[in-house]
Design goal:
Length: 749
């Protein structure tokens, strides 16, 4: 009996242990599939540091090289670090931020020497990827030169550092607000040692963000034993209004070999930074665990099933990257600073910045309408606040500053999409008035666009791209006007949305620059020619890549080509043409080439789905799968171009599950070629939508048949409303195209 009791207890323990193990595995299951080093090599421009979804802080290593592939501050090819910053950009094509640089050192360093390059920075260190770790909400790096292990984690508006020094080594930290080897230029900075445990200060700078103001507070787990302050190469007792502020702080090495730091930032004040600091503590493991749980929760909103581990890694890493930006910008008390230096208090919403709208309106914002609709409404409210500065909606907002980077006004499709998808929390009338006013003003070529119906190439560079994007913006405004019963405005903007017709050359089959006489084309013409930003009709591309941006009128574009056969033949040629790009100043953004299709840059992202509108959906299935297979992998070079704040990854997320928003504001998703056996979407209304791909494999890429909730489904699109109703969309896949599937027009459109 006693033996039996022992056996029973043992079996009970094993059973409980298995249940505990299962629970623990579930809590880390999805984050374990994330490889944050994907995109840190090549032209991906991502960072590997610690943050939380849409977090204000991105605490991450900085290599200190200001060349293009170091836009995030880090590149996987490097092996030297100059510190750990608290702000970073994910995948942009321009560098900035890397503010409030901190690095632990084990020696006194001379901070009066102004470095001429990163090799002359006195506190730098080498490192090896063999002793580097990154996972959602956590980053670790061992500094070889200082024998210090660095661990970083983050909350929404603050971060916690953990430094492990070698026993008996000097325990010191360098805080650099000047950071000479950076993208921007410090205009004023200051450091204040407030008490034995606390340092605060500010950094004003100009760069891509012309008026960036960062306030910070850092609290240490040990008292500061002594410190050295250096202002513009001179040792001082306190620092205020210096261009280059640097401090070295020393701590007692006899009280253990670990040092913890809590850091928080604010665009408003040190006082607000102190309030933000309350979100984390010195219990590093608890902050790290909470960050991991937060990531696991948001990653779990879409669950995929496949036997291929690399596909899970690519998918959940893409889900991770797609939720790094936009970033939280308002403080815990709601305040944030705009480029005019006016302080605003966000009422009943969280303000955001890092709005890379030229990129993210295409797939990331549509994805967020599933993952975080409440945040979408907050982003709309933020854009409406930025609008008040000049009565123009934002183009590309960085740390509260309008950069006017890229073409078009793509806050407009984001707003219209949100409204038409039923996302609440912002004023529809206020939003509509902002969109209409924006499209009726004269800046950035709109004066020419209104006067001519298009932008003549002799009056403005990038005229073709800008015209096509304004036409789409107009179509979006028209849809909002129609929904609000504004018939006259609807007709006005709908007519303007046909601007693409002015630029289509029937002889060449391309959109081309046209002179102001309305007749003459820009000659000579070479569809493969690219010139970066100046003396060009196209933005970061050529005629092959930019002649397809008519997402609101694909059928009309096909007719302009002479019908579906000629249209699809031209589409095929795009993918099969040689990849030669001509010109002496070719845009570096033209990457990820399949023929002339350039997946590494956003203007190409919708093109493969256009076959769906020309009665050849099997070609969409073929080319989408080709892009999925060739443009993404699990290495640091796993992105074929700039991540661009989530767009490259959002394309993968949407396309891999079989859906893509060719025209985001239409609220309709095109069907491509799903790669997972099963996808389960946890919808914001509590319902579940499942996508099943029976027999799917590397060879079985073609849809043979489909059912929606058990009924035959023979169309190539599905509406947002249908998905929100929940249910199951089931595909049967095969290795040969079924050319009769998907030819029924979807009445949901």
């Amino acid at each position: 009996m006693k033996h039996f009791l022992h056996l029973f207890i043992l079996l009970l323990f094993v059973s409980c242990d298995k249940n505990i193990s299962k629970t623990n595995n579930n809590s880390i299951f999805l984050t374990k599939h994330v490889n944050a080093f994907i995109g840190t090599g090549g032209h991906g421009h991502t960072y590997p540091g610690a943050t939380v979804p849409f977090g204000m802080l991105q605490v991450t290593p900085v290599n200190g090289v200001s060349s293009w592939d170091w836009c995030s501050g880090y590149h996987y090819s490097d092996s030297l670090v100059v510190g750990f910053s608290h702000l970073a950009l994910s995948g942009t094509g321009i560098g900035d931020l890397a503010d409030v640089l901190i690095i632990p050192v084990n020696k006194a360093v001379d901070l009066t020497v102004m470095p001429k390059g990163r090799d002359s920075i006195t506190y730098k260190s080498t490192y090896s990827h063999d002793n580097e770790t990154s996972e959602p909400g956590y980053y670790q790096l061992f500094l070889k030169d200082h024998n210090v292990n660095v661990e970083l984690t983050a909350g929404l508006r603050s971060a916690t550092h953990k430094y492990t020094y070698k026993p008996n080594d000097i325990q010191s930290v360098v805080l650099d607000l000047g950071f000479a080897i950076n993208w921007d230029k410090a205009t004023s900075s200051g450091i204040q040692v407030e008490d034995d445990f606390t340092v605060s200060g500010y950094r004003y700078s100009t760069g891509w963000a012309k008026n960036q103001k960062v306030f910070f507070v850092a609290k240490f787990s040990k008292p500061i034993m002594k410190y050295d302050l250096t202002a513009d190469k001179i040792k001082v007792d306190s620092i205020s209004n210096a261009k280059k502020s640097v401090a070295q702080l020393f701590f007692d090495e006899t009280t253990g070999n670990k040092l913890y730091i809590k850091v928080a930032l604010s665009s408003v004040s040190v006082a607000n930074a102190i309030e933000n600091l309350g979100e984390v503590n010195f219990d590093f493991d608890s902050v790290k665990t909470e960050a991991n749980k937060t990531w696991n929760s948001v990653l779990g909103k879409i669950k995929v099933e496949t036997k291929i581990d690399s596909l899970k890694t690519m998918f959940y890493t893409a889900m991770y990257h797609a939720q790094l930006a936009p970033v939280t910008f308002s403080d815990k008390n709601g305040q944030f600073r705009k480029q005019t230096d006016s302080l605003v208090s966000a009422s009943n919403y969280t303000a955001y910045s890092t709005l890379s709208l030229w990129d993210t309106f295409r797939a990331e914002h549509p994805l967020l309408t599933f993952l975080a609709p409440n945040k979408v409404s907050d982003m709309v409210n933020t854009m409406l606040e930025y609008y008040k500065d000049k009565n123009i909606l934002p183009v590309w907002t960085l740390y509260g500053n309008e950069t006017n980077t890229m073409t078009g006004y793509h806050s407009i499709p984001v707003i219209v999409e949100a409204y038409l998808k039923g996302i609440k929390g912002f004023s529809a009338e206020e939003a509509y008035n902002a969109m209409k006013t924006t499209m009726m003003q004269d800046e950035r070529g709109l004066e020419f666009y209104k006067n001519y119906g298009y932008i003549p190439y002799n009056l403005l560079d990038e005229s073709v791209t800008i015209t096509l994007e304004y036409a789409y913006n107009d179509w979006c405004v028209a849809q909002m006007a129609k929904a609000l019963g504004k018939t006259e405005d609807y007709e006005l903007f709908l007519k303007r949305s046909e601007a693409y017709k002015y630029l289509f050359d029937t002889k060449t089959g391309f959109m081309r620059g046209k002179f102001e006489d309305g007749k003459s084309w820009n000659e000579p013409f070479d569809p493969k020619y690219s010139n970066h930003r100046e003396h060009t009709d196209y933005t970061e591309g050529n005629a092959w890549q930019h002649s397809w941006f008519v997402p609101h009128a694909v059928e009309d574009l096909a007719e302009m080509h002479g019908g579906n056969e000629k249209f699809t033949a031209k589409l095929e040629q795009l993918f099969t043409e040689s990849s030669e790009i001509t010109g002496s100043n070719v845009s570096a953004d033209i990457s990820g080439l399949i023929g002339q299709y350039a997946h590494g840059n956003e203007p190409s992202h919708h093109i493969a789905y256009m076959f769906n509108h020309a009665e050849k959906p099997w070609r969409t299935q073929y080319w989408v799968r080709e892009i999925l297979d060739t443009q993404y992998n699990t290495t640091p070079n796993g992105l074929s171009g700039n991540e661009d704040c989530g767009q490259m990854s959002a394309w993968f997320v949407m396309s891999s599950i079989g859906l893509y928003p060719l025209n985001p504001a239409s609220t309709v998703y095109e069907i491509g070629s799903p790669i997972f056996d099963k996808t389960t979407m946890q919808l914001p209304n509590g319902k579940v939508f499942t996508i099943v791909a029976e027999n799917v494999s590397a060879d079985n890429i073609y849809i043979q048949s489909a059912t929606l909730n058990g009924k035959d489904f023979n169309t190539t699109s599905v509406s947002h409303e249908t998905i929100l109703n929940g249910g199951e969309l089931k595909f049967v896949m095969g290795n040969q195209p079924n050319k009769s599937w998907g030819l029924t027009k979807n009445t949901q459109e």
